[in-house]
Design brief:
CATH superfamily of the largest domain: Phosphoenolpyruvate-binding domains
Largest sheet: 8 strands, mixed
Structural class: alpha/beta
Number of domains: 3
Oligomer: single chain
Bound molecules: phosphoenolpyruvate, magnesium ion
CATH architecture of the largest domain: Alpha-Beta Barrel
CATH class of the largest domain: Alpha Beta
Radius of gyration: 25 Å
Number of strands: 16
Strand order of the largest sheet: 1-8-7-3-4-5-6-2
Shape: globular
Low-confidence stretches: none
Helix content: 40-55%
Length: about 575
């Protein structure tokens, strides 16, 4: 039966395809003693050989869709499955304790995980704990007759349906087959939604119940323009939405005409529209959409895509590729922002009650100086290949900024002494995403070359509303005058101190926010590459003279976010008359 669900529009576009449900099965079991040890061992051995065959298949598909590097993790899994020390220990446990294979597997796996996790002086071996966990889960699923989902093994067109998608799940989605995704939970600025936009995958998040409302393989529509998911649509609905998808593509074709045009207002004022990227693989999208700079390179994805900490040389190559790819145009690379909703399988960090308020981003880098210094050296070396800006995320105090800059300068001096060339144009900036930093922007502005406002976090911290929690999405208000005042103060402080100010949060590419930001004189607008041409087209219609009063009204006259939506709508309606 047809069912329509409303969610949050997370990434533009329409797709129609069967659902692929990505839900972890329940792998709980009961421990019991067994009489026939031999048949229990054969049952266990069969689960291992079935798991091996499955992982080999997944590895082959992953190699084709994600390349050698993307398939590496599965090679590690095969090594464990073939390791007699591991599999033999489980057999011995079944034999010695006369317990069922599930209980023996669980007990032995926990023992191995503990040993690996304890190797704190060897991050490579520590990382094996995650592999043992994954492999054990797969063997357990076979023992229990359950199936594990695997996004990397998808080999036909689907819409992925999940309770939630982690950024690493999203990174495994192969655009050739995955036509969109729909989740139960999540917000527009959760990282999986941001990645969906850079992959140009239509997405709807926060539907509440899609995983319960659809069965694997049932046909569905995802409308990422209006945030709607339809289960088992009628033929008429399929036709209607296919038309809507085509209209959207036509609109995109109109915007595409602006690809090589400058970003100017109706009264001829020039601004910069830049792209946010997650990996060097996003560069084709940056060029296809006519970005004038890279305003945010989220380097944490480099760490998330690999099975161990990327080496200095690996990082250097990735940064250099992006910097060279921009041919002299500015590239802002942010030091890693791990924590919050971004985790590394190979870095077991302590569980925190409130990860978004915990040891995240610059806090984690300052606590792990060696990892931070490796990244800074890679960045400094890459700076010689173009125009680089290094940016620190989540700075909250001047002390943090000074400490980060101090470490950067130490690494810079060491490299210079060794004769390594550092770019002459290197700039050092910070994100403004903690309200404390926005309030003190006048002081911070004296110590950096630029600001980039991270509204995704600035809004969540100002409104105390988790950016990924749809239950409080009503409080996540980009247009709230409180948020706008912080933004205005940041821009004014930058300009009073002679530095430039950009924005790399999603609000920079928002149609309602944009006229307000332009009115505030924001210099650079960095967004998902797919938003660039839409915003360039909007910029062309707006004149800074007409916009003069808009920012003051939005900050000091309006009382609510809704007032500001109306303010901008009325302004645009007058303009379009
Ligand atoms: C932001 O917070 O606005 C931002 C750009 O950083 P991220 O989305 O990666 O937290
Ligand atoms: Mg942020």
């Amino acid at each position: 039966m047809t069912k329509t669900l409303k969610g949050i529009a997370a990434s533009d576009g329409i797709a129609v395809a069967p659902a692929y449900i990505l839900v972890e099965p329940d792998l709980s079991f009961t421990k019991h003693s067994i009489n026939d040890v031999d048949s229990e061992i054969s049952r266990y051995k069969k689960a291992v050989s079935d798991s091996t065959a499955e992982v080999e298949k997944i590895r082959d598909v992953a190699k084709k869709s994600l390349g050698e590097e993307g398939a590496q993790v599965f090679e590690a899994h095969l090594m464990i499955l073939n390791d007699p020390e591991f599999t033999g220990a489980i057999e011995t446990e079944i034999k010695n304790s006369s317990i069922n294979a599930e209980a023996a597997l669980d007990k032995t796996a926990q023992k191995f995980i503990k040993i690996f996790e304890g190797m704190t002086d060897n991050p490579y071996m520590q990382e094996r704990a995650a592999d043992v966990r994954d492999v054990s889960k797969r063997i357990m699923a076979h023992l229990l007759g359950k199936k594990l989902p695997n996004p990397a093994s998808i080999d036909h067109e689907v819409i992925v349906v999940a309770h939630d998608l982690t950024p690493s799940d999203t990174a495994q989605l192969n655009k050739k087959y995955v036509k969109g995704f729909v989740t139960d939970v999540g917000g527009r600025t959760a990282h999986s939604a941001i990645m969906a936009r850079s992959l140009e995958l239509p997405a709807v998040v926060g539907t509440g119940s899609i995983t319960k409302d659809i069965k694997d393989g049932q046909n569905m529509i995802v409308d990422g323009l209006d945030g709607v998911a339809i289960v088992e649509p009628s033929d008429d609905q399929v036709a209607e939405y296919k038309q809507k998808g085509e209209d959207f593509l036509k609109q995109k074709a109109e915007w595409a005409k602006l690809k090589d045009k400058p970003s100017v207002t109706a009264d001829g004022k020039k601004f910069t529209i830049a792209a946010n990227i997650g990996t060097p693989n996003d560069m084709p999208g940056v060029h296809e959409n006519g970005a004038e700079a890279v305003g945010l390179y989220r380097t944490e994805f480099l760490y998330m895509d690999s099975s161990d900490f990327p080496t200095e040389d690996n990082q250097f190559e990735a940064y250099k590729a992006v910097i060279e790819g921009m041919k002299g145009k500015q590239v802002i690379i942010r030091t890693m922002d791990i924590g919050g909703d971004k985790h590394l399988d190979y870095w077991d960090l302590p569980q925190e009650m409130n990860p978004f308020l915990g040891v995240r981003a610059i806090r984690l880098s300052l606590k792990n100086e060696n990892i931070f210094r490796t990244q800074l050296r890679a960045l400094l070396r890459a700076s010689a290949y173009g125009k680089l800006g290094i940016m620190f995320p989540m700075i909250g105090t001047l002390a943090e900024l000074r400490q980060a800059k101090g470490i950067l300068n130490e690494e810079k001096d060491k490299l210079i002494k060794k004769g390594v060339k550092i770019g002459d144009d290197l700039q050092v900036g910070m994100m403004i995403e903690v309200p404390a930093a926005a309030i003190l922007a006048d002081q911070f502005a004296k110590e950096v070359d630029f600001f980039s406002i991270g509204t995704n976090d600035l809004i969540q911290y100002t409104m105390a509303a988790d950016r990924g929690n749809d239950n409080v999405s009503y409080l996540y208000q980009p247009y709230n005058p409180s948020v706008l005042r912080l933004i205005k103060h940041t821009i004014d402080s930058a300009h009073e101190n002679g530095i430039w100010c950009g924005m790399c949060g999603e609000a920079a590419g928002d149609n309602t926010m944009f006229p307000i930001l332009l009115s505030m004189g924001l210099d650079e607008y960095s967004m998902s590459a797919t938003s660039i041409l839409r915003i360039r087209s909007l910029m062309k219609k707006l004149s800074t003279t007409d916009l003069k009063e808009l920012a003051n009204q939005a900050c000091y006259v309006s009382e609510t976010a809704e007032d500001n939506e109306k303010l901008v709508n009325d302004f645009m309606a007058k303009l379009n008359k």
